[in-house]
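Researcher: Dear colleague, please comment on this protein.
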Amino acid sequence: MADTYANPAPLGLMGFGMTTVLLNIHNAGFFPLSAMVLSMGIFYGGIAQIIAGICEYSKGNTFGFVAFLSFGHFWLTLVGLLLLPELGLSEGTSPGFMGWYLFMWGLFTFLMYIATLKKNRALQTIFLTLWILFFLLAIHDWTGIGVIGTIAGYEGIVCGGSAIYLAMAEVINESMGRVVLPIGEPAAG
């Protein structure tokens, strides 16, 4: 039986990529954190990735299912960590404990990166740069050294940009019926 379902990965990748770029423009020091980033975190980084993950389940793609559902929930928890104290619903998270939150996401991302080693180079780039981003952000929170947060911001823009690239490569290549934007297919074997 032929698979007639659309590829949900570009939706999840765009939700991740655009939200990551926008948050890291803030982390790099260009703009203060605002409702725009929080809304993107809830609706595109969060909900759109969750929808993509559920669709990946239907296609039998365990990697996509775990990645999109996990990172969709990352965005929702991050927004919760920022908003719940503002709404008076909980205490704020200390920078040191926030560092552990980011470290755990970095550990998860590193393990997911290992799972990309037989996948395309574009996907490997996303997970490698995301792993680095989480660890830079954790180190920033643990040490309070501002320049590390700024470097993380620039690195996060690269990470998000790589996800946008892969999303658009998948859409454009499928639409054109040929490779327009290469993604570095893995070697056979």
In short: The CA atoms of residues 29 and 176 lie 38 Å apart.
